[in-house]
Amino acid sequence: MSLLQNSDMKSSKNDILLFFVMIALGVLLILIFSNETKVMGDRVRVTLNGNVYGEYPLNKDDTFTVSSEHGENVICIKDGEVYVESADCPDKICVKHAPVHYDKETIVCLPHRLTVSIISDKEADADAVSE
Amino acid sequence: MNRYSRQTAYFFTVEIFNMKKKLFSVALVVIIFSAIAYWAQKSMPQSASADFFAMDTYMSVTAHGKGSEKAVQEVKQAIEALDESLSVTKKDSVVYRLNEIKSADLTPDTDLLIEKSLKIKKQTAGAFDICIYPIMKEWGFTDKNFKVPDPETLSRLCDELKNTDINIDRENMKISLSENAAIDFGGIAKGYASEKARDIICQNGINSAIVNLGGNVYALGHKSDGNNWKVAIKSPFDSEKKLGIVSVHDKAVITSGGYERYFEKDSVRYHHIIDPFTGYPADNGIVSVTIISDDPTLADALSTALYVMGKEKATDFWIKNSGLFDFVICDETQNLYVTEGVADVFTSELRYEIIKK
Description:
The structure holds two protein chains of two kinds. By secondary structure, chain A is of the alpha+beta class. Chain A folds into two domains: 1-35; 43-119, N-utilization substance G protein NusG, insert domain (mini-chromosome maintenance (MCM) complex, domain 2). Chain A has two helices and eight strands, in the order H-E-E-E-E-E-H-E-E-E. In chain A, a hairpin with a 2-residue loop joins strand 1 and strand 2 (51-57). The longest helix of chain A has 32 residues, at 2-33. Chain B has ten helices and 17 strands. Chain B has helices at residues 2-43, 68-86, 94-101, 108-123, 133-139, 151-162, 189-203, 296-309, 311-320, 340-343; strands spanning 47-54, 57-64, 103-105, 166-169, 174-177, 208-213, 216-221, 229-234, 242-248, 251-257, 262-265, 268-271, 286-293, 325-331, 336-339, 346-347, 353-355. In chain B, strands 1-2-6-7-10-13-14-15-17 form a nine-stranded mixed sheet. A three-stranded antiparallel sheet of chain B has the order 3-5-4, covered by helices on one side. In chain B, a hairpin with a 2-residue loop joins strand 6 and strand 7 (216-221). The longest helix of chain B has 42 residues, at 2-43.
């Protein structure tokens, strides 16, 4: 009798094991489904020639230089906005562009093939801008 | 004692057997769950985008669905190839050769584009004209060496424009231009590129994509959540603001604005949308025209044509062709006009007038 009880206890131990395995599986599944490690909050994405050069948090003030064979752009993140502080491109359209902070807003420097755009986790109010 | 130990051994074996069974079921559960997870991830909506520079602008194509990566790469290649053949500045392009020696080989793209351009020129009574290139060149809009041409030169070029002729010889696969003619697909090429992009994406079996060729937008199908695509129209007065949003599916949303490209001389602003009848930048009070249409190529050309026409003529033109397109027009006193076909899908914080037939 006592042995049977013992056996029951063992099997309930296995049940507990199974329980934990299921929880571990659940966690694993969540990890798999959220396949990308998401950076929370708005961020600035810089691309060169269509390739991502880097991503930077919008809420952390920062100034950095992006240089390529085409030239240099100094990008400044300040007070939750990003703008091109200076550039050695011929038209300076990127420098004249107003600071951006809304989702999908983009500053383009055509001569340097550089873009600076905002990526937001908040729902965007537009999917594209016709201009 | 012996009996007892035998019993213990018996129970012990059962125990191990049970444990093995449990372990086995746990392993089975793990395998099944992994399989489900793998399958779920595989069948989860995929998406891909390509961002690139072509036609002197920044382009972004995003497609959702199986095979989207292949589709966007094909779009990128097709548009880059189109740029190579339609550019007015690249020395080995078809258009460059045509403008230089007035004759070039007919390609499927140039055939379609010329035919469509001539059709739209006729429809718009000359407000859209690809032969405007010599005038654009005179202003420096083609190479950014801006200058204000003298009035005599402009009136001579406008007279010449009236007598230009484009000939398509399909038998010998040749295009030819009359003596003083030169063409520029600048007012229609991006629309045509959007159309190509749409066709390529559809051929790949994808029904959800947003194509943005430097502000010329085409919205294919619906978003992955089933809603319409929201396309904002940029404000001509403040680049941070918008005139409004149109919620659409399977539509091109293409805007022409004097604010896009211009230069200033003696504190006068000269923009790039030239009136083919005067040779000067269109000056009729309009500051932005957005065309919403099923046909991206038509939308691109009409955004220029209606800008040149002015609000009254543009309205008349729409009344006659309301089946083809809708518009959103903004004038310099910030009046906003929206045709009734898009009134239901247009939202704005600004006041606007709905134009009815």
